[in-house]
Amino acid sequence: MAVGPETTEAAAGETVSRIKKAAGERFDQIEINCNLLAVGEQPPQWLPPGINIEQLRQSGSLAVVMGSVDEMCERLMARREALHISYVTLGEQVTLCMD
Fold first, then answer.
1. Cα 37 vs. chain centroid, distance in angstroms?
2. What CA–CA distance (Å, rounded) separates 16 from 11?
3. Contacts of 66 (CB under 8 A, 6+ apart)
4. Does the residue 4 lie in any domain?
5. CA angle, 17 then 9 then 85, to 5°
6. Model-level pTM greater than 0.85?
7. 56 in a domain, yes or no?
8. CA 46, CA 71: separation in Å to the nearest integer?
9. What is the DSSP track for the chain?
10. What is the number of structural domains in the chain?
11. Within 13 Å of residue 21, how many CA atoms lie on the same side as its CB?
């Protein structure tokens, strides 16, 4: 799903609704991806200027998952269910922040 880091789960839901409407009966054959910008409590150092992870988290950004491992798993599972997300991707630099 090509959305910016400021996209909320609600806005992503609207995008998925448009995809579902356009796809019709083929919707179940479509895989939807979500890219994570930050995972856990330590944001990656490479973030571009102007990106504030805490603001994104508070606004409900789809690109951020924070909390305990269990909380993050629950959040991702809820997104999977609500938004029909097939898989989640994250860059190598994000994985380096996951201690």
1. 8
2. 9
3. 38, 39, 40, 41, 53, 57, 72
4. no
5. 65
6. no
7. yes
8. 25
9. ----TT-BHHHHHHHHHHHHHHHGGGGGG--EEEEESEESSS--TTPPTT--HHHHHHHTBTTEE-S-HHHHHHHHHHHHHHH-EEEEEE-HHHHTT--
10. 1
11. 6
Structural domain includes residue 28: yes
Q: What is the pLDDT of residue 19?
A: 95
Residue 1 placed within a domain: no
Query: Cβ distance 58 to 73 under 8 Å?
Result: no
For residues 35 and 87, give the distance between their C-alpha atoms in angstroms, rounded to a whole number. Answer: 9
Q: Which domain holds residue 51?
A: 9-95
pLDDT of 94: 59
| Ordered mean pLDDT values, 10 residues apiece, the chain (99 residues) | 88 95 96 89 77 87 90 93 92 60
